[in-house]
Amino acid sequence: MPWRVFPWDPSATAGQPCSPSYVRPEQGSGRFDLPNGRVLYLAETAVHAVAEKLQRFRGQRLERADLHESGKPLALVECDIPPRTKVADLCDPAVLVRHTLRPDLLASMKKAETQAVATALYDAGYDGLRWWSALSGDWHTIVLFLGRVGVTGLRYLKPVPLTLTHPVLKEACAALGIRL
Q1: Which of 30, 72, 115, 142 has the most CB atoms lying inside 10 A of its own CB?
Q2: What is the mean pLDDT of the segment spanning 149-162?
Q3: Range of 35's domain?
């Protein structure tokens, strides 16, 4: 099951800001964002999810206050994706060949090109895609097209607030060169 990190308010109901299922309505600047629909970025591992959120602190010392966003504590949550979700695994060479995709295109910083790939996969009937993280080829991202999967089609387990002593946070910091 994949993971995400988000600012958490335990009193927020499903779909509200600071709930595990909240996805910002304003999108468009993400690597695989859709021009006419929302996407949810998830990490295949907990350490990758934490690293994505903390990457801006590379080369710095992480303080307890850095584990808050929008006035709320950051939390790690596992997401259960329905088993029939059709995800294009772009790490599989056969999938790249089938869709005439090149790895250098997928890794491009030109968002118009990577977003066009996401749109083409959406149009081909996929519910999402899987690709390596820009942080490390060891980590993989799952991008879900919410117009297909829907926010309510996902189930979130109990969020866990991040602390400076959390083992996953320590591992992510070590991987990114963030001092504790």
Answers
A1: 142
A2: 89
A3: 3-176
